[in-house]
Amino acid sequence: MVLVRAECIQELWFRSVRAGEYRREVKILLSTKKLQQFKETLEARILESERVLANAEQETRANSARESDPGDQAAAEYERQTLAHKADVARQTIRRLSDALKRIRAGNFGECAQCGSEIELKRLEAVPWARYCLKCQEAREQH
Ligand SMILES: [Zn+2]
After folding, report:
1. How many A from CA of 119 to the centre of ligand 1?
2. Domain shared by 81 and 49, yes or no
3. What is the pTM of this model?
4. Could you read off the pLDDT of 85-106 as tens digits, one per residue?
5. Ligand 1 centroid – CA 103 distance (Å)
6. Cα(140) to centroid(ligand 1), Å
């Protein structure tokens, strides 16, 4: 048995606490920087979708104001549906992105809504609005 003096143990303990704190600080710093990047990406995508939505709404208004030829009604209806679909997709995207921004503000961004574990960074980089980790997402898709 090796006898270690109390001061040595204390010193070792302090050193490991300091190392732990340092690692934690680095982790927080990194994640803060990453979070800021995600926030910017989400905001940029929201702006993009808002533009798409505004365009679709504007086109819809312009189309309904235009007198359409009876022969063109099928084409006009098709265009109306296409624009409505485009607007729906944009609205849905904006909602998803805004929810992800809310999660950043609430401090639970990147946390799987199903199992609570961390969502893979690669997945978040590809899909910043992801709510589930890969495993839970795959399980949901199978059901
Ligand atoms: Zn999960």
Report:
1. 7
2. yes
3. 0.72
4. 999 999 999 999 999 999 999 8
5. 16
6. 10
